[in-house]
Amino acid sequence: MAGSTFGTLFKITTWGESHGAGLGVVIDGCPAGLPLCEEDIQRFLDRRKPGQSAYATQRKESDTAHIMSGVFEGRTTGTPISVLINNEDQHSGDYSDIALVYRPGHADYTYDAKYGFRDYRGGGRSSARETAARVAAGAVAVKLLEQLGITICAYSQCIGGNGIDYERFDIKERDRNPFAMPDAEAAAAVEADAIAAKSNLDSLGGIIECVISNMPAGIGEPVFDKLDANLAKAILSIGAVKGFEIGDGFMVAKLKGSENNDEFYMDNGKIKKRTNHSGGVLGGMSDGGDIVFRAAVKPTPSIASLQKTVTRDGDDTSIAVKGRHDPIIVPRAVVVVEAMAACTVADLLLQNLGARVENIRKIYER
Amino acid sequence: MAGSTFGTLFKITTWGESHGAGLGVVIDGCPAGLPLCEEDIQRFLDRRKPGQSAYATQRKESDTAHIMSGVFEGRTTGTPISVLINNEDQHSGDYSDIALVYRPGHADYTYDAKYGFRDYRGGGRSSARETAARVAAGAVAVKLLEQLGITICAYSQCIGGNGIDYERFDIKERDRNPFAMPDAEAAAAVEADAIAAKSNLDSLGGIIECVISNMPAGIGEPVFDKLDANLAKAILSIGAVKGFEIGDGFMVAKLKGSENNDEFYMDNGKIKKRTNHSGGVLGGMSDGGDIVFRAAVKPTPSIASLQKTVTRDGDDTSIAVKGRHDPIIVPRAVVVVEAMAACTVADLLLQNLGARVENIRKIYER
Amino acid sequence: MAGSTFGTLFKITTWGESHGAGLGVVIDGCPAGLPLCEEDIQRFLDRRKPGQSAYATQRKESDTAHIMSGVFEGRTTGTPISVLINNEDQHSGDYSDIALVYRPGHADYTYDAKYGFRDYRGGGRSSARETAARVAAGAVAVKLLEQLGITICAYSQCIGGNGIDYERFDIKERDRNPFAMPDAEAAAAVEADAIAAKSNLDSLGGIIECVISNMPAGIGEPVFDKLDANLAKAILSIGAVKGFEIGDGFMVAKLKGSENNDEFYMDNGKIKKRTNHSGGVLGGMSDGGDIVFRAAVKPTPSIASLQKTVTRDGDDTSIAVKGRHDPIIVPRAVVVVEAMAACTVADLLLQNLGARVENIRKIYER
Amino acid sequence: MAGSTFGTLFKITTWGESHGAGLGVVIDGCPAGLPLCEEDIQRFLDRRKPGQSAYATQRKESDTAHIMSGVFEGRTTGTPISVLINNEDQHSGDYSDIALVYRPGHADYTYDAKYGFRDYRGGGRSSARETAARVAAGAVAVKLLEQLGITICAYSQCIGGNGIDYERFDIKERDRNPFAMPDAEAAAAVEADAIAAKSNLDSLGGIIECVISNMPAGIGEPVFDKLDANLAKAILSIGAVKGFEIGDGFMVAKLKGSENNDEFYMDNGKIKKRTNHSGGVLGGMSDGGDIVFRAAVKPTPSIASLQKTVTRDGDDTSIAVKGRHDPIIVPRAVVVVEAMAACTVADLLLQNLGARVENIRKIYER
Fold this sequence. Notes:
The structure is a homotetramer.
Chain A: E1 5-6, E2 11-16, E3 22-28, H1 38-48, E4 66-67, E5 71-72, E6 75-76, E7 81-86, H2 108-115, H3 131-147, E8 151-159, E9 162-163, H4 171-174, H5 184-199, E10 206-213, H6 227-236, E11 241-246, H7 257-260, E12 264-267, E13 270-273, E14 281-282, E15 285-286, E16 291-297, E17 307-310, E18 316-319, H8 330-351, H9 357-364
């Protein structure tokens, strides 16, 4: 019945419903002495904020982050950091029709099956709005990773079947188009499809790719808390994600060992790999290469075209979902993927501190 | 530094190295009163046992399960069930060369990066032999699920690019061919490729598909402990797995909302779905449909052809991996996938017991 | 570095500093369908509220509880319940002197030793104000326990050496005197001592006793999560508590087995015990008797008389602690003890739901 | 339903019943590179071993420790350490009478109340024999603490009302008398009482005191995972323990703040305390002083004199407990207290590694 807490040492607990008073996160276990201010968090929230393009929900939320605890004189104190985001633009009236009808592709039915009833307003806890709290937590994790020189970068790799061309890859372009694509041509193709989808009262899915750079080797815990296993959980826990793959991913089904293995070589006294089929993880631990993974994001289930469904009381009916929805959820999910990746890596970096007796001696030498 | 424990209420802790004294698992939190004997576990271990085909390692292990605790007069007592499997056929000599050389695609380097040194014999803790303990735990979870009518069935869906044809799907065929494929024709195609790969000193990867049937709706914990998120972690934690997808999976990138949504309808007073694009999960909770997911398994990294690599001491070198290896690891991983799925579902079924006050009252009424 | 989360299934996470923006708790895992409103929580907070007697801090806080999530139409939804309490009467100026000086008996030094610096205002996270969040969580747990007929009642058993006389025990009296003593004569004796202590710029310690009634038998998890072990942790985690004992407690050192054992007998078909030396726990599980435990609470370390100490920078100095402090912390801690006991029991009641296969079948029968 | 796992990073999982095949522990999260051999563990087990005095059970068990994994070439590898202890001298016949009758002071009834049935042989999982696995784990924790210069020492402080005189305190004496008392005179007084108790078919309780020396300051996690809170849980989780107190403990009820506070002073540039009323913990974190705590251990409930009780089937009856029991359990529990204290401290030392950003940078600097 719990399930709103993620992480062992860098531990985040989120709360809040789409149309309640607000939402937030408590980050427990962030090391003391990290420079942190509300602007650090706001920068991330602004990337997820609704209403910024014609292809995102028109709900108007400033998503203003309030740090309620855990920061003193500009630095984290080691105690829990509580971040509060008030809801401002709830139009609960829009959702009164879904109180009694289960939207296809949504969690309305499963929430009722589990709990017996639900806060139906705007999807309640199952709303994508829940991810704002994750992003706030991720912003703090990113600040921590920066201290170690680790960076995380995600982008739309494919939307509605339109994939980026890596020859044209330009990460600056990501922040210029409404699809978070690092390739202007691909974004243009998506735009055409998006316009068509909107006018057909339909929606599009896509793939987000994420790269974590400058990871030290050896991060991740055998056997069950492998870096890739924890990343997979983190990413699949994001609402609309239906798949996760790392490195060559599902392509391995067609590869031979000789093609998929990465050869090691020495480079100025450092161990390097010539290729990165592994996606930066061997045996569940970082291998010094970039961590490269992808997430499959389903098309927004809220569509305005008529779909057959049932009522809570067990009658056949049909519904055209009203309200303010994202016809493509992929672009706004990009920063959520970064956030969850950051929290996962921060947690495993902390777990790894005690991997060797010599490290422990180093910290406690008196 | 921990990481050998999986689950919150149905909690398994594995231990053991490839060439140590043995390996095992402690299952804590299995409900009391479940009929269980060693044969229940042995049946599962036998499906994973080495040396059963020309395409698997020739190491000879009986993999005999000893229940050391937690069972009395044929039933579980509610206390931890410790299962012990002794190692019998360690040829540690075969591995002396890898003490100093990092095998490409293996965890030799990352273990050293993390811990400073490692038990290199047979890959130590990173050996696929570790999965025997998971299978023993999974056998117990399967017994528990049986009590609720829930069944789990996995099979090779594709090996070396040869996928099954669902028109020919025959689950009984799975146990007849050495590739665990439910399609004799596909298995024959794989065999040809496998023979070629072996003679080329190479290996093949593939995809395992798994179906969980008769799940009650509402299982899985929002937000972070979603059923699919926990399954993803469970499956990615298996050694060679590089991807996980559920329902339409990565295909959603090309689908529209109208294509990916599953319509609900009433069937004799029960809520059903006309299609199962979701793979049986909505909002992270089971939706009453079959849970259908796939895992991408990389080609065995241990190949006998010469690969460039480095030594532990930082010199360039090359290696042809000796020892007794599976040219295709997919078939033996099928039961491991079932095992991890069973443990995941058992854990979430227990977590869900207290989802409603009315359930709690039902148990404690006096 | 974490440590602000308590419980496995009924899981509470608190945050907040004495002089920050506020404090709060996220309760994750509360079953759905529990009637809950802000007044339910306020009633408990009011028992802990400062400024209600001459023997408590004169800080003025309304301690108003705001439920931010997890409740819909008067019932819990199963999603996290976030309770927010804003700080209103911070006089941070009072504490500027302790920024540099370590108060004896306080956590100033240990926080610096751990984190390198601290939010010194009012003791920051180590302030007793932190317990308001626990009380809010406890109020929810008590509501859940009420559904099963379980009640929890704590009171001051002894303050400054003045113990209650069980012959005069009257629980209604507890709420009439400022010492939470269920015995008016004992309270009068305490008052005399309290006046003396105040005028001597000193403080008093005491013992709180707590009784949990109507527990079903069998609650508590062997081996490590015993009911009494988890209670001990819960109670010792309260700021000033220095001891915990259950049943005969430390008196067992002088007792024989024949004196300490409780004989069982049948009473109208039910198993009962003639005595309750065990304090309601056998082998770490409830035995059907009342759970009876005691907590030792140290005298408030903040005293206005001059004490020798050191500065943060390593110089000998002395301090007379200013600010608004409770000369006796015991009475206000009574409701905190109830709250922590309630959270502990609620968590173990949920953990116990799956103890038997037959219970699981009962919930999932279809 | 789980409950056999203790610790977050230094995580131990025990299993085994009194009369099953054996018992053991899996220690997950022990840092790599720690020198460890079976003799290190055996030394601790030998202190707990039965049959060593006339006042302990006459069961003959060699309690031989087998390290099954996690150690390679004399050092821990960072992977789980599995320790196996086979049972050798089960006389299950002795216990056939308790299959149907609930022994007063024992867990027979509560196990049945929880699980519906139990392994009654020798008390099954509730037998004090379970603590052998804790001691094995504690031996490993002690080895880790030694690396940091931290030592742990427990002894009987009082048995049957006969307390030690600190003027005569001699820790070497502890290992010379059968009562683990560091005072020969007190031990002699206990012996007289013990002889009397035995001949009266009765048993004695006592108090164990434990001192942890040379702790760095700042260990322990606010708010819930305080050092003393976690110690309290660890100690109360030991079978017969009914109370825990730290520093002045229950005596605080009679003390004033001016008496209970410890003054700080500078000693050669180091912060020291003049007294240690706190028992080495302030605000839940170590304050640099010795950690001093006490545990109350009840008299062995297994007594041969006749006691009234009930049968499993609900009839009044009486029982004189047969079998081989310790008339005083205190002396054999001394090493168990040390073991649990060591595991607790090891876990919190590891959790503290990431308390500051500067520590993390120190480990990961490249």
